[in-house]
């Protein structure tokens, strides 16, 4: 089952990260446009490489979501560029379907003379330089300076940028002005259309699309590790329950994708609410509940509608007491009911900042009570009760690699940051 296409991937990515801070996504799109035009001016890159660099341009500052650097990103001379560069490197390396581009992200702020001495391919260095110059050109333009950007950047040739890459920038600037009657064209729609067009021209494989989908889910860990583990757990339980209920291969795949996407909107919920160590106030709970609305806005028109509805209805109850729509039993498909019950099991058996994991007996007791009250699907409760130990063992198996990755990233960060600061 093909969940989405390459353009859908880019749209969902930008919508999701936009809820964290729109400044970085707007900056990423503008940077991507400049990178695209520079690579076109070079003439030596195939469509796949151009597409990949457009994606990396959108994501190049993703490490800033983990740091407090967002408000400082407009400064050309940043005091410490390495924190977000290393976080971004680790994210792309470990959690994206494009790990080969991780060094480009890591090195995109390194000055040219130092970059020459780094042990990596010349092609990686050139891509890092293209991204670096495009990045800084956009920052300068957004500062509203009067001096032409070409003149401003020229002073850094040989110190921050290579002459080769600066000449590419001049070439693309000349081409663009010829196209636009001698004027710079800086409308967001122009940038976005061209960047999405380059992404659309070279489609991603199904495997890559799946990788980007997981990458977005993992990106929430930059704000709440518990949320990511909960998502992986909910997905594993949903799939195991669907198989035992003979949902069929195609529907089970839709259930898997819906479960994977069900909490994507939490990327837009403040971390102090996500990780609050106790019962949320009514106001905070109302805010938390908006994650379903955010998920809908992110997925709208980009993903199979059945998958979207599975993701959006995981907090509905059979008696109409759930949210956000108050759907009742007749409105909820088997797939939606399976994910709703699996979400509850995942929440009960998982740790949170405010609770320890519930054991088997307590979890099953709560499920049985909710079943008897007519709140959740009795068939799903029955199969989970019958196969609880086997299912939860499979959950542990699927979560272990993710936990290992996060543990390894923390260790690797400490090792890399020291090396980078000494470059």
TrEMBL record:
Residues 205-400 form the HD-GYP domain. InterPro entries: HD/PDEase_dom, HD_GYP_dom, HDIG_dom. It comes from the Bacteria. Coiled coil: none annotated. This is Nucleotidyltransferase with HDIG domain. It comes from Murimonas intestini. The lineage of its organism: Bacteria, Bacillati, Bacillota, Clostridia, Lachnospirales.
